[in-house]
Amino acid sequence: MSFSDYLEGRLLDLVFGAVAWAPPANLYVGLFDADPGEDGSGATEVSGAGYARAALINDKTVWSTSAPSGQPVSNQTEIVFPEASGDWAGGAPITHFALFDAAAGGNLMASGALTAAVTVTGGDRPRFGPGDMTITLD
């Protein structure tokens, strides 16, 4: 997983005193059929057929901590999406996820590959177990 250009800029501003910045209270998980990249232009987010980003509280009950320093951070809780009313991504495998600071639009914070690709068809309710989404610094 990689931090986005947006988040890298906010962290540099914070570290070097240019601008105070606080992480969002909630993060929203979006799904992609390819790597969106650090600027979000590498792929299109899934849409339609009942798709919506999954909302998560942004704290250590949802995300593992990085202690000892440098360790990856992973989801500790199951991440559940709404039931699909049709095929997501046109029936193509969903291979990547991204974290956003808003339920729609907003800023891409980080993105990465799922531990295993999934195909979502009508009636499915996608679920990702603990550890399926891992964040590291590259």
Task: Give a summary of the structure in a few sentences.
The chain is built from 1 helix and 9 strands. It is mainly beta and 138 residues long. The N and C termini lie close together (8 Å).
Labels describing this entry:
single chain, 138 residues, mainly beta, five-stranded antiparallel β-sheet, two-stranded antiparallel ribbon, 1 helix, 8% helix, globular
Could you walk me through the main structural features you see in this protein, from its secondary elements to its overall organization?
The protein has 138 residues and is mainly beta. The protein has one domain (2-135). Helices cover 8% and strands 28% of the residues. It contains one helix and nine strands, in the order βαββββββββ. It has one helix spanning 5-15, and strands spanning 2-3, 26-32, 54-57, 73-74, 79-80, 94-100, 108-118, 127-128, 134-135. The strands form three sheets. The chain has a five-stranded antiparallel beta sheet. Strands 4-9 form a two-stranded antiparallel sheet. Strand 6 (94-100) and strand 7 form a beta hairpin. The N and C termini lie close together (8 Å). The mean pLDDT is 90.
